[in-house]
Protein: LemA family protein
Amino acid sequence: MPPSWLLDVLLGVAFLVLVGMYVSWRATRLDRLHVRVETARAALDAALVRRSAVALELAASRLLDPATSLVLATAAHRARTADAEGREFAESDLSRALRAVVGQPDFRATLLAAQGGSGEEGTALLDELDAAAQKVIYARRFYNDAVAAARLARRKLLVRLIPLAGRAPLPDFFEIDDAAPRI
Structure:
């Protein structure tokens, strides 16, 4: 039978190995959550850029009256060129502008009449705009879910005691008025 001190050392080493494995697992999980946040942010940025591009395309299509085109083009341009601090406000403004444009009385009928009744170009643009607006909604929800998971993981005691997050900044939620226009 081995000496008692040897058994104590083996149990201590096994305990340290298990603690090390757990800490490593938590660090890896936190890193994966941060990668998920970055990936979701890239998808959100792509969806926002696509929505503003479609809005600019609609504004430049000559299907809308000049005042409406100017309002829509201005909001889309501001959304594309906004800095990080003003991005949420600019995107919310674009959402409101899109709803105002599409929410005009008899918008679809007016759009079809402007094209001589065929409406193929306008209908295609509206379908593309609707798809782009829906993608923004889903991308923002996915991003905010990823941020919530990362923030929850960073609140754990172990992550705070041992700085497992390193120097990674705490991710922020992206809050905009993204209600889709009723097309």
Q: What stands out?
A: The chain has a mean pLDDT of 87. The two ends are 81 Å apart (CA to CA).
